[in-house]
Amino acid sequence: MNLADIGNLLGFPTDYLSFSYFIGKIINWGVGTLFFIWGINLLMSMIRKVVLIAAGVKGE
Question: Of 1, 13, 20, 50, which has fewest CB within 10 angstroms of its CB?
Answer without folding.
Answer: 1
